Structure formats: C-alpha cells, structure tokens
C-alpha cells in the first residue's frame, strides 16, 4: 500500500494565510498560523458536552449532546432550559460511556426522525430512533425504536459517531470493544460489528435494511452492515459536505494517533489496519507485519503532540475563506487545533491553527458550514477569524 506523504508545512503557492501572500516555494512553519482563528464562546454551563450538530431544517438551531443523556437546544443564541431529549434513565455514564452523538434524518423536516448512539445501563451500545413532538423544540420518547444493540465486552472504545452520508444512509462508528491492544481482534473480524464503520438504510425494513451495495453483501460468515473495518476507536468522523469524502479520526493505542480517509467514490470495504498497524507502524506483530490489502492513514502524530485525536470537519463556511477545503481536527489532551489538506495527490500537509487549553471532546458544524469546538468541561466555542466579532 502506498504511504501518503505528510509534511510539516503548507505550500504557500496554494495558500494565502493570515492575509499574507507568500511567494511560491516558501513555507509556513508547522508551529502554526497563530492569529488566523480564535474561539468565541457561545454557551457555557453545560454538563459534559460531547457533540454539536444541526437538524438541516433551516431553523438555525444547534443541538448539543450532553454525555449524561440529554440533548440541549441552542435557539436564537439562547440555551433553552427544557432539554430537546432527556434519556438519562437509559444511559450509563461516564468515562467513555454515555449519550455520544445524534444525527437527524435527511428528511427531518418531513418525518421528525433523529437517531442517537448511547451506551445503556449494561454498557452496551444502542442505536435508537426518536421523533420530535408537536412542540418542535421537544422530542417525544413515545414510539422510540431500537435499531441495533451491540454488546460491549469492556467499558471503553465505544466509538459513538452517527452521520448520514451524502447517499442518505446512516453511518455508525464502533470501537474495537475496549481493553488494550484489541485482545479479541474484533477490528479484523468481519463477523463482529466492533472496530468498524457500519452503513444502514434506516428507511427499509422493520428496523433497518442493508444497502445492496454494501461491500460484504452476500458473503457468508460476514456481517453485511459493515462498510469499513480495522479501526480502534473512531470517536469522530465526518463527510466533506462539498465532495462527499469521508475523514475518520481513529484514537490510537500508546504511541500514534491517526486520520484515515475514504474518497467519495470508494465502494467501501477498506481495512484501516488496526490491530496490525497503529498509524504507519506495526503493532501486532510489532515488526515485519503484513500490510498487504491495508489502507494506511493520510496522517499520524505521536503522543509527543497529544494523546487522543478528536476528529472535526472540512471547513465549508464563509467566515474564514482561507480555510475553505481544510480539514480541522484536534487533540483532547493537548488542546491543539490543526488543519490538514491534500495539496496534490497523496500529499497531505498539516499546520497548527491554534493552541488551546480546552479538553476538546468534539467539533461541530452548523447548517451554513461554520465550525465549533467543544470543551468537555462545559463550554461551546464558535471558530471565527481572528479579530472577528
């Protein structure tokens, strides 16, 4: 497998950074483009916020997931007192367990359906569907439907992300089941739903259907829900809203954090390498591992720079034109926010955008493509141009 080239600079023949045009052949140091962005707090006092998204309904509302089991609603700049959804009685929290994300049906404006990923009181992963009530700011728990329950052998590595892809199917990130080193080799086991990206048709069947072009449809002894595999703990992934490309931030073991990539025209079935590989490096076995058939990351960073990657989004907003097309991501431990972009085929370049002291639990995207950074300690920030209002 060809290894993507990763460098510590951006080629400024492509970039205009911080309002300064550099001549072709120059570079911007990986120490960063400080002063390009800043964080503007928009709401605080939340209880362990771990995700933010929108409903795609034109309302401008932001939905903030609290790990303990509530979804809070930010409407017209105000945090509503009454939660949009409260399922704390069903959810086990905290550590890596809890209510972990929400995704709204592409036709939410018509059907009112949305989907949540949480760990139940036993610690197992539940994917469930809920619906908005007659009050558009409050969901009902009546008629809730469980689509999928996945047994979790250990309390960590639960994944947690839900995203509807450009194809209208629901994508689910699952961790390898926990403990260290994937002791049951779940990520490489195609009979297990752990350590995978799953892809479901939520509009088919009693609970869901299998898209007919899922890569393992019709193969015996293989779970047909699987879209990609070989992942350790894909806590956050996202689709580029313009290109449809998929970016997966996979939390590493002891040494390396990685960003994986799937182009929009992929038929699925990628094996991203865990537990054979951690980043670009052999893990099990620790040397001379067989890398045939693996899709290696587009980027890695060592635990000298952080300890737990937090995936973000490709910026497609309007407020920071210099960042359009750049994938923003960060690290939970160091609080660093980076930008990553493919500057030519197979060549990805990274730069530090901002050093923070946040516990970056997640990033969020609103309906207009503007991005947000979430501090687990209770504050949501909007990412704005430096000096912006």
Tally of DSSP β-strands: 32
CATH superfamily: TolB, C-terminal domain
Which oligomeric state applies? single chain
What characteristic shape results from the CA principal axes? globular
Helix content: under 10%
**Count of runs of 4 or more consecutive helical residues:** 1
Number of domains: 1
Strand content: 35-45%
Can you tell me the CATH architecture? Answer: 6 Propeller
Q: What is the C-level CATH assignment?
A: Mainly Beta
Rg over CA atoms, rounded to whole Å, is: 20 Å
Overall pLDDT confidence: 92
From the N-terminal CA to the C-terminal CA, the straight-line distance is 46 Å
Summarize the structure.
The protein has one helix and 32 strands. The protein is mainly beta and 389 residues long.
């Amino acid at each position: 497998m060809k290894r993507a080239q990763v460098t510590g600079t951006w080629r400024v023949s492509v970039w205009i950074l911080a309002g300064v045009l550099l001549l072709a052949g120059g570079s911007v140091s990986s120490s960063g483009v400080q002063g390009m962005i800043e964080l503007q707090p928009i709401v605080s006092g939340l209880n362990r916020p771990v995700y933010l998204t929108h409903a795609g309904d034109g309302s401008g509302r932001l939905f903030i997931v609290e790990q303990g089991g509530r979804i809070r609603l930010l409407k017209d700049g105000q945090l509503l007192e009454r939660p949009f959804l409260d399922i704390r009685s069903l959810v086990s929290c905290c550590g890596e367990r809890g209510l972990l994300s929400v995704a709204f049906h592409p036709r939410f404006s018509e059907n009112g359906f949305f989907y949540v990923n949480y760990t139940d009181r036993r610690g197992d992963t539940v994917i469930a569907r809920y619906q908005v009530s007659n009050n558009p700011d409050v969901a009902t728990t009546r008629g809730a439907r469980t689509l999928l329950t996945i047994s979790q052998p250990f309390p960590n590595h639960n994944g947690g992300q839900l995203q509807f892809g450009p194809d209208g199917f629901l994508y689910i990130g699952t961790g390898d089941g926990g403990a260290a080193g994937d002791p049951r080799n779940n990520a490489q086991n195609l009979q297990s739903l752990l350590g995978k990206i799953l892809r479901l048709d939520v509009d088919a069947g009693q609970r869901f259907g299998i898209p007919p072009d899922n890569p393992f449809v019709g193969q015996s002894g293989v779970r047909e829900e699987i879209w990609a595999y070989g992942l350790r703990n894909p806590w956050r992934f996202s689709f580029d809203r313009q290109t449809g490309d998929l970016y997966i931030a996979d939390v590493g073991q002891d040494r390396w954090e990685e960003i994986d990539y799937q182009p929009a025209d992929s038929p699925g079935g990628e094996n991203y390498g865990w537990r054979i590989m951690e980043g670009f490096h052999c893990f099990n076995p620790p040397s001379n591992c067989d890398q045939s058939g693996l899709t290696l990351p587009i980027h890695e960073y060592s635990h000298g720079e952080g300890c737990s990657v937090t995936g973000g989004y490709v910026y497609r907003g309007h407020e920071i034109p210099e960042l359009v097309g750049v994938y923003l991501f960060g690290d939970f431990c160091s609080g660093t926010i980076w930008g990553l972009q493919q500057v030519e085929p197979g060549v990805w370049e990274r730069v530090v955008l901002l050093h923070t002291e946040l516990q970056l639990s997640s990033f969020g995207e609103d309906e207009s493509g503007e991005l947000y950074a979430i501090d687990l300690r209770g504050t949501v920030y909007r990412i704005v141009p430096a000096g912006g209002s």
